Structures are given as C-alpha cells and as structure tokens.
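for ur thesis appendix - Hint domain-containing protein. copy paste whatever u need, i formatted it the way the template wanted (i think)
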Amino acid sequence: MKNNLLSFLLFLACATATQLLSQRVAAQTTAAASTGMTLDQLKAIKAIKIANLDKDTYLKSGAFILDRYEERPAYVFNYTDGITRKIYLYKIFSAADTKDLGLLAVYQNGKTNEVKPFVIPGASAERTAWDAYIDDLKYVGEKEPGLMSTLTFVLSREMAGLLEGGGGKTEEGGGKKKEEYNFCFAPDAPVTLADGSAKAISAITTGDVVMGYNAQTRSFAPTRVTNVDTHQSNSFALTAVWLAPANEITANGRGTLVAPIQVEATANHPVLTDAGRKALGDVRAGELLFRYENGKTIPYRVVRAEQAVRSVKTVYNLTTEAGAYLVGETVVLDK
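the 3d part is after this line
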C-alpha cells in the first residue's frame, strides 16, 4: 500500500511539475504558430536514437533539432542500490522553422545502460500528445525503480530555477531570451581539406576528410566529417570578425596595409579564442583567434567585429571526429 501511494504521489508530482515547466518555458519564448506538438511528432521524436548522450548536445534528426537544455550536463543520481542514474534534458525544435515544440528527458540506467526517453510536449501541444506523455509516466516510469523520483526532481528543480528568474540570459522584464538554435556557416564558407586545399562547406559530405584541430596539443591532423547539418529559412543573419597577424606588422613589402581576413558565421557558432571556447558574436576586438599556416597554429588578433553583416537563406554546420575544423584556415569548433 505504501509503495502504491508513493508511486502515485511521484506520478502526480512529475505530471504537475512538467505542466508548470512547459507553461513557463512557453511563456518565455515567442510562439511561431498557434499549434504545438502533435502525437505523430511525439512518436517520431521518441524514436530518435542519440549515439552519445554526453557528447551529442546538439543534433538534427529528420524534421527535428535537439539542443541540450540550457547547456546543462546530465543530472546524476547515486542511489544506495549502487546504480548510477542520469537524466539528460534537450529542447526540441522543428528543423524547418526552429519552432519550439517541447522537451526531451532521457533517463539512463548506469548498470544496464538502458535508456528511456520521455517526450514532454509544449503547453500548446495537442491533447493526444499530452495523453501519450502521461501514459509513458504511468506505464514506463513506474516499472523502473528510481526513474520517477529522478525525473520528478529534475523537472521540479528546473521549474524552481525558472520561477526564480534563473536558467540563462534574460530580456528586459525578466523573460528568458529566445536563442537562435542554428550554429552554422554560409554556403560559400571555405573548409580547409586535409591536403590544404579548400572546398565550399555546401559541397562537403559525410565521410569527407578535412583538416582538424586538437585544442589540447595545438596540433593539426586530418579528421573525418561525421555529420553535415543544413538549415533553411527566410533569413539567417551572419556575424563577422576581421583578423590580422598578432605578431607581425600588417604591411606588405610595398608599405601598404594588408587587408584583414574576414571570418563569418551565425553569432552563436563557437570558435577558439585565447580565452577558450566562445560564440563568434561574443568575440570582441583585441581577442585572439587561431589560424593554420604552414602546419602551425598562428595567433591572429581581432581588429574589428560586426553583427549582422549580411544574411543568407541556407546555412551549414559540420560535426567532425576531432571536434574542430578550419573555415578559411581559421579554427572553428563543432557545436
């Protein structure tokens, strides 16, 4: 009787926390349309397989984008039964228009490595999608010891953070700023290949070998492209920075200034700076980025940075085995 009552209370707490969290998140983002997640979408999202939960913080699968919620690492729970349990949270977006659809909570049993996904619809989702989620809580969650308590804790904790105004950057008035969820380059961005030549990122395919970069050893080596993401929209704004050699006078032999080198991408695409990983839109004049020259890592200083220099309708992003590659011979990082 006690166990049944506890299960019911956990179920009720989890369902309540979920509803409040989804409503709060929805209220802090701009709705792209009046309709939300459908039952068919929920089923498709639930079927998505994430190869590496710790490393795959951003991925596109079919019609959906999964992006790690607030860049959170996994919630880790160590119970007295010796089994480590984890909960990973992802925000779910439509790949076509980056409309916010809801949350994905992935539970992992550390002993069996079995995972159980829970697709949490947004507040505007169809009733049938919510019914399916509640069914999962009841018929899946209650069969796995420890699952309901971990999931309830995570959703309640996130809800508490939102109520306190935490959980990321905010706009005026305390609402959470809606982020862009594409980390990409224009179609003509030149990717450096393993032989030193260049190819437009739009022509790169999965399996191609490009020049990669190891941030720990500061060395370059060929790396394989494991995924190519493509996003289309009416307009993607690109940010640009202009670079000049940090250790040289930027003049040629005739005494005229050499034009700085331009690097552009969506504002949130990560690059390697002297302070570590940073979104391109956060890079400021005076900071250092790194370029590939004659097999060596050469620091270049940012002499100018500008937001929204131009816009394109299609953007591309690579995932590589090394976690970093070169665009215009400048080191950029995988999302």
